[in-house]
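Section 5: illustrative case.
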C-alpha cells in the first residue's frame, strides 16, 4: 500500500511537469547542473581559501600533483583542474586555456608555495644561480630588487617575483582602476609585498638615476597585445626603464606568422631584433610542452642590459 502511494505521488508530480513546459525545463536544467563537475574557477577558489579544510582532498593518482600551501596543508589537482585564470589572449578550446600548476620552491624558505604564474618563469627563478642570489644580497638594505611587470593582470607573476626576491619594490602596471583593485586583492590574499598602479607603460616615468631604475622587467603577453607599430617604442621604453646589468625576462608567445590580433604573432628573432641595440641574450629556453602556460609553444628569453 505504501509503495502504491509513493508511485501515485511520483506520477502526479510528473504529470504536473508535463503539463507545465517551464517547470519541466527547470527540472531538467537543475538535474543537469547537479551532475556537472565542479567548475575550475570554483575549484581554484576552494584551493585558495580552504585547502586542507572541510572535505578530504582528491585521491592521488599519476595524473595529479600535490599542492602544498604555506600552512603545510595538502590537496591534489587532476590535470583538468590544473588551470590558471591568468589573463589569456587566446580564443581557443580548453587546451588553449590550460595552465599547469606547480609546486614552486620559495628560494627564501623551505616552504612550498602554490603558484599560478607561468611555469617557465617559476622554474627559471627557482633554478637561477646568478642574478637572483646577487640581487637578494645586494638589495637587502633597499627593500629588495626593483621589478616591473607591465600588463600584470591579476598579479600572479607579481606575487612570484616578490616572494623570489623578498622585495617590496615589485610594481605591476594596469590601465584601469578595476584591474588594479583585483590585483591588489590577490596580493593581499597571498600576503605579497608587491603593488599594482594604474599607469601607461609607454609614459611610465622613474627618476633618471640608476639607483631608481628597475633591476628586472618581466614581459609576458604584453608585447603581443600592443599594436605592431608600437614595438619600437616598447624597446626604447625598456631601455629607459633599465640600467646596465638589468634583466628583461620575456615569455615569447604566441609563436607563428599569422595575421591580425591581438594577440599578434611573435618570434624569438623578432624580439631579439627589437632589443639588439641595447640588450644581449643571456639565456634562451624552449619551454617544454608540460610547462606551456596556455597550451601552445612558447620561449623564455632573458636579456641583459648593456
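Designed sequence:
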Amino acid at each position: 500500500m505504501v509503495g502504491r502511494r509513493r508511485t501515485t505521488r511520483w506520477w502526479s508530480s510528473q504529470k504536473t511537469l508535463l503539463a507545465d513546459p517551464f517547470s519541466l525545463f527547470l527540472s531538467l536544467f537543475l538535474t543537469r547542473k547537479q551532475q556537472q563537475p565542479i567548475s575550475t574557477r570554483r575549484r581554484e577558489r576552494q584551493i585558495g581559501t580552504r585547502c586542507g579544510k572541510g572535505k578530504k582532498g582528491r585521491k592521488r593518482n599519476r595524473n595529479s600533483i600535490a599542492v602544498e600551501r604555506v600552512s603545510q596543508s595538502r590537496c591534489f589537482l587532476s590535470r583538468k583542474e590544473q588551470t590558471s585564470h591568468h589573463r589569456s589572449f587566446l580564443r581557443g578550446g580548453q587546451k588553449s586555456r590550460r595552465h599547469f600548476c606547480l609546486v614552486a620552491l620559495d628560494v627564501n624558505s623551505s616552504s612550498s608555495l602554490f603558484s599560478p604564474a607561468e611555469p617557465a618563469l617559476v622554474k627559471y627563478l627557482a633554478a637561477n644561480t646568478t642574478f637572483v642570489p646577487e640581487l637578494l644580497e645586494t638589495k637587502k638594505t633597499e627593500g629588495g630588487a626593483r621589478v616591473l611587470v607591465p600588463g600584470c593582470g591579476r598579479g600572479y607573476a607579481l606575487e612570484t617575483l616578490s616572494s623570489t626576491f623578498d622585495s617590496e619594490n615589485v610594481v605591476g602596471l594596469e590601465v584601469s582602476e578595476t584591474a588594479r583593485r583585483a590585483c591588489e586583492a590577490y596580493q593581499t590574499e597571498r600576503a605579497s609585498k608587491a603593488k599594482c598602479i594604474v599607469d601607461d607603460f609607454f609614459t611610465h616615468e622613474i627618476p633618471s638615476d640608476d639607483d631608481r631604475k628597475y633591476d628586472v622587467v618581466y614581459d609576458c603577453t604584453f608585447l603581443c597585445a600592443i599594436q605592431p607599430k608600437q614595438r619600437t617604442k616598447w624597446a626604447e621604453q625598456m631601455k629607459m626603464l633599465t640600467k646596465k646589468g638589468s634583466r628583461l625576462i620575456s615569455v615569447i608567445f604566441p609563436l607563428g606568422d599569422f595575421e591580425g590580433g591581438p594577440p599578434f604573432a611573435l618570434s624569438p628573432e623578432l624580439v631579439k631584433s627589437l632589443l639588439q641595440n641595447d640588450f644581449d641574450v643571456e639565456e634562451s629556453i624552449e619551454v617544454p610542452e608540460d610547462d606551456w602556460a596556455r597550451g601552445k609553444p612558447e620561449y623564455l628569453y632573458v636579456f641583459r642590459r648593456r
